[in-house]
C-alpha cells in the first residue's frame, strides 16, 4: 500500500513545528513534504538584532534540511490550491511551475506586510518581515550615517541622520530601540562634520507603545526609549511620504531618507483563493485546526483564525507563541486523522511576552510577572535561546562578542532597495520584473 502524502505549505513557526512533530509521530508511515520559498526557518523575533548588527544573518536562519529528518523539502511558493483535485500549484525559485498532490494538507503560510492607502508609502517605505529587509536596513542605516559623516550641507545631513519607524508594536519598538544604539555607536567612530546627531522617531496612532500588550510592558518600553533619546510620538502617523521625507498627521514635515513600516501584518493572501470562510482574511478553522467541510485540510499560525478556547468568542492572536504551539497540535491531529494517536483541541494561555530593547534593557512579563532592566534582558535572551530550534551556540556566541567588541558596520550591498518592495508578499522571492540593475548605484542613497 502506498503511504499517505502529507503536504505542509510554509516553514515558519507553525509549519516547521508541524513538520518536525509529524516526522516523529509517523516515523516511516507517511510521506511528508514541506513547501517553502527558502531552505531555512526564520526566527523572526531576532530579526531586529540582525538589522542592527548584533547577530549575523545566518544565526536566525535554521536550516530545514539540516534539522528536519524524514521531511522532503520542495523549494517554491504556492500560488494556487485546488481543494477538489487535492493539489497545490507552486513556482520554484527559478520560475518553473510544479504541482504537488496530497492526502492531508497543512496551510501555514503566515502573514505579509499590511499596507495602508497612504500616498508615497509603497514607493518610499520598507517593511520588516524577512531576511532581505533586515539586511537592506542594516546596510541602508550604515550608509546613511557614512554619507552624513561626510556631508557639509546641514539639511541633507539631518535627513540622513533621521530614521522614522511607523508602528509601535514589538517589531517597531525593537527596531527603534536597537537602531538608536546602533547609530549612536556608528557616530562615536565617525561623527558628522555638521555636529548633527542621529534622531530616531517612533510613531503610532495608538495612545501608547506596545498597544496590544500589558500596560506595564508599555510603560517600561516607553521609559527606556525616551531615556535613550528616541522621539516617541503616539497618536501620530504619516500622511504622505516623499523622497525627501514624511508629512506627519499633525502637519509637520520631517526630512528623512528612512521610513520603516512596521504597522502590522495581514494574513497571507493565498487563502483568499480557496473560497472558504475567512475571518479578517484568516482561514477559519475549528478547534482541531481543520477547515470545516474539508477534514483533510488543516491550517495554523497567522494565516488561520483559530477559536481561542481561553477567551470564548475570540480568535488566537498572531504571535509566534500561538503559531509554534498550534504546529504541535496540528501535527497530532493530522497523525490522528491517519489512525496514529487521538485528536485534541487547541487551547493555550499566553505565557507572557519579551521585548528586547538592546543593551541591558528589555520589557518582559513571564507568567504575568512584569520585569524591566537587566533581569528582563536576561529573561528575554534566555527565552529566545530556549525557543530557537537550532543555532543556539552561534547566537549565544554573537551576543557574547557583541558585549565585548565594537559592532561591525560595513555595507555588503547584497540587497537593493527595489528588491524589497513593501508590497512584496514573500520578500525572499521578490523579483520586480524589469527592475533596473542598481548594483552600481543605489537608488535611494
Ligand atoms: C520582525 C518580527 C518580530 C516578531 N517578534 C515577535 C515576538 O517577539 N513574539 C511573538 O510572539 N511574535 C513575534 N512576531 C510575530 C511572529 O513572528 C508570527 O506571529 C509568527 O512568525 C507566525 O508564524 P507562522 O508560522 O504563522 O508564519 P511565519 O513564521 O511567517 O512563516 C510562514 C512561512 O510560510 C512561507 N510562505 C509564505 N507564503 C508562502 C507560499 N505561498 N508558499 C509557500 N510558503 C510560503 C514563508 O516563507 C514562511 O517560511 C514577530 C514578527 C516579525 C515580522
From TrEMBL:
Transmembrane segments: none
Keywords annotated in UniProt: FAD, Flavoprotein, NAD, Oxidoreductase
Domain FAD/NAD(P)-binding: start-end pairs: 5-327
Segments for region (Disordered): 426-445
Cited InterPro entries: FAD/NAD-bd_sf, FAD/NAD-binding_dom, NDH-2
Family: Belongs to the NADH dehydrogenase family.
Protein name: NAD(P)/FAD-dependent oxidoreductase
